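Work Package 3 (structural annotation) set out to generate three-dimensional models for the target panel prioritized at the project kickoff. During this period the team completed the workflow that converts sequence records into discrete structure tokens, so that structures can be stored uniformly alongside our sequence database. As a representative example, we reproduce one entry of 107 residues exactly as it appears in the project archive.
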Amino acid sequence: MATIFSADIADSDIRNHVADVEKLVATHGGEIVLTDVWGMRDFAYPIKKKKSGYYVFYYFDAPRETPHKLRDAIRLREDVIRHMILVNEYMPERKGKEVQSGTTTEG
């Protein structure tokens, strides 16, 4: 699942927002395999009058009905500008809980 958080969120608070979405996935029956944090990126065009956002990608295993439940729950979050849930045949190895800037950290 690709998620773009608002750039208005302080850098110190972004980890809490990332953890909240991880809990949301777990609440709806999913299991996080990998969280890939890309950080702040500029948009090619404005989205909701914003020019940049904080990109985070979640890889998770979940039952078939989970993406629909997640979509509905994430739409209610004001901190998420955009999101996209994809079914991916490729699942990354479980290297650690979070990957940021090419390094793996255990969490």
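Confidence is low (pLDDT under 50) at residues 101-107.
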